[in-house]
Write a structure and sequence with these properties.
Layout (H helix, E strand, L loop, with lengths): L3 H24 L6 H8 L3 H4 L6 H18 L7 H7 L2 H6 L10 H14 L4 H27 L8 H21 L7 H13 L7
């Protein structure tokens, strides 16, 4: 069992992180000081430094939170064949959507906004985004190419489709960096976009 002080320290760090996600996403990283964050959490500003060395470390933690869970939301490669052979069209169309777990959805949307709002100005955000795109392209390409090999799809330009799909997701996600109030609507927007794009997949049956 964890020592009570350790539990309390972890709880404080989680509260700092969750609050930072919300403030960075809704107000902009540059507009939130460590004092602002401390006031929102209800602790002294100096206390934050017991958990995070500086503001940039906290911002990077936001990036990594999104990247790590984005990867975790993908279908395991072990399940590709089963869903391609036995899944419905709807099952297959849902594979590229990377749905967020409901209990983490809001924090993931906040973290995504933080990353996307800085990926043209912060080299660390650019590196993490590039990594995520490479992984997503590989995942989608493997999935659709397997579908062609198994006869579920007619042959089609997988690379171009995947690029179109990821570009559309990026465009809709970036809109939240301009209008943070639109965050709650992002799932609906992306769901409609994904539904439209998946109609382009040439199913055989």
């Amino acid at each position: 069992m964890l020592d009570h002080k350790v539990e309390q320290k972890q709880d404080t760090k989680s509260l700092i992180f969750d609050t930072a996600l919300r403030l960075f996403a809704t107000s902009g990283v540059e507009n939130v000081s460590m004092r602002d964050l401390a006031d929102a959490v209800g602790i002294k500003a100096a206390s934050i430094y017991n958990h995070y060395t500086n503001k940039e470390q906290l911002v990077e933690a936001c990036y990594d939170f999104y990247i790590n869970y984005h990867d975790a939301c993908r279908l395991s490669k072990d399940h590709y064949e089963d869903i391609l052979l036995h899944g419905t069209r709807e099952d297959i169309a849902n594979v590229p959507s990377f749905p967020f777990p409901e209990e983490l959805r809001l924090n993931l949307l906040y973290a995504m906004t933080v990353l996307f709002s800085r990926m043209y100005t912060d080299p660390k955000a650019i590196d993490r985004y590039s990594f995520m795109i490479d992984r997503s392209m590989r995942f989608l390409s493997e999935f659709f190419e397997m579908g062609i090999r198994l006869g579920r799809f007619e042959p089609f330009d997988v690379s171009s489709f995947c690029m179109l799909f990821l570009s559309a997701r990026l465009f809709s996600a970036q809109s939240t960096t301009i209008r943070p109030a639109s965050l709650p609507d992002l799932d609906t927007v992306q769901s409609e976009m994904i539904t439209a794009l998946t109609r382009l997949i040439p199913f055989r049956y």
